[in-house]
Amino acid sequence: MEMLYAITTGILTSCGLYLTLRGRTFPVVVGLTLLSYAVNLFLFSMGGLTTDGAALVNEGSQFADPLPQALVLTAIVIGFAMTAFVVILAMRARSEVGNDHVDGKKEDRE
Amino acid sequence: MIQHLIVLPVVLPLVAGILLLYQRQGLVHYKRAVSVIATLLLLLVSIALVRQAASGEITYYALGDWQPPFGVVLVLDRLSALMVLLTSLLAVGAVVFACGGDDEKGSNFHGLFQWQLLGINGAFLTGDLFNLFVFFEVLLLASYALLLHGGGKARIQASVHYVVLNLAGSSLFLIAVGILYGATGTLNMADMGYKLASLPAEREGLVTAGALMLLVVFGLKAAILPLYFWLPRAYAAAPAPVAALFAIMTKVGIYAILRVYSLIFGEQAGGLVALEQPWVWWLALATLAAAGVGVMAARDLRLLVAYLVLISVGTLLAGVGMRSVEATSALLYYLIHTTLITGGLFLLAEMIGLQRGKPGTRIVKGRPLVQGNALAITFFIGAIAVVGMPPLSGALGKAMVLVAAEGTQRVWLWPLLLLASLASLIALSRAGSTLFWRSHRGSPSGSPLSRYQWFGMLWLLSAAPLLVAFAGPVSSYTQATGEQLANPQLLIETLLPDAGETP
């Protein structure tokens, strides 16, 4: 379980990082989205992974740490709003500058 | 009422911002009045907060009466009170300047401005690491929209870089917070500092990783060397009142570095004490060097002021890197000076650009200015203050930072800081003589500037003589702040009364 979780987070992060470093705005936006998914998963795991436990305090038996859940909720909301904003910004940049390069250059080749 | 005073710097801009959303267009006078009155009220509240904090007592406000470490708290000590006061002083100048016409170039300027203040004040007051993230996001979202205010190609280009970088920074912030929470089991900064004292040895690596990741995030906000490349373009493209308000944004990063590493990684942290120090010190010096070069290379007055902001960041972070009471005191004095003066210079640059017409703020020959003499004199005063020549506040601030350096630190800091100051002196005198003296023949044209703009700019620049006149009380306050920061035990005991008994 832990292994699967860690590998998933790692793959998401590396894909996100790779795409964020691209030169066009669309891959950058997708990269940021993947990065925020990875971060959300990571945050969620920080209270320790609990399987078959109660979601909240359940007397006596095993229960999951509630705080990371609250943190993840906040992070998801903020991340979602930011993604919406950056999509609109990328479209504005595309229409004002005339191309979708992050530096506003016409050609990608150096 | 008095116990609710601490939450007012957050609630007041929030309510004002909501009121200002009422209509997208129109109601100009009503909106300006609400925004200016709210900012003035904020100034009064923050003066009251400074008076409360000056006694040396640390007070906190537990939201919903959930006591720390479980609830979210706002903490008021000397440092946070000072930063909130500084924000509101800067905001008054910027918002009055905006009433001169900048607020009508797009929609919802005043509402966004108030929310930006909400985010900044919240970041200064919060005692909770995750809430620091939330307030950072609030101030960033407002700043994204404000940066785009008025539109235009340059602003959108600068915005794309600024937004993408800060989104990546937010992800890193969350990862760092997650690591620190996983290692210590708390998010309250005071509690985290307390728990680090009894940290199991195998978790030290984890905490170090989290702490240094936080440094990257704060360094991005503060614009330290490898992470500053977004700043000159964004600040030079932003509308003038927004750029002036952004002068405090880099200081939010510096405040966060000061707060987190003095409180969480203070003396009680054992092997992790001062783990940020070498990084901050050397990168600050490198920032100074790079900013000195940038100042000389800038061909636009606004870009020049943006690089002056970078010089101040380098100076301030060098002060943080020294990590002594004297250095903290000196850097706080310099921080007040540099925030207000660079804010004022952004406003002044916009006024000069407006009068010059087509050449704008580019440092090239242009037509004579209608109000050239008055602008030239204020530019002269602002330049003297920001370069750090006597008799204005910059000289005092820089001298205090220089004196605070000890031993081999002097060998590195003195030449770099003095050379960076020399570079800004040369660049500013070149800019001034080109803008005001090397003009085309012919009669001056252009319309006189609005009195709101004059008031806003002079309000900020008047800090330079006032900070010298009241250098005594201000520096004794910053000295006391430095001592309070060096002794985080006080804050921990105030927030967690149980912590003192079982060390």
Automatic annotation (TrEMBL), chain A:
The chain crosses the membrane at residues 6-21, 28-50, 70-91. The keyword Transmembrane helix applies. Keywords: Cell membrane, Membrane, Transmembrane, Transmembrane helix. It is found in: Cell membrane. It holds the Pfam family Oxidored_q2. It is a multi-pass membrane protein. It comes from the Bacteria. InterPro entries: CPA3_antiporter_subunitC, NUOK/Mnh_C1-like. Belongs to the CPA3 antiporters (TC 2.A.63) subunit C family. This is Na+/H+ antiporter subunit C. It comes from Vreelandella lionensis.
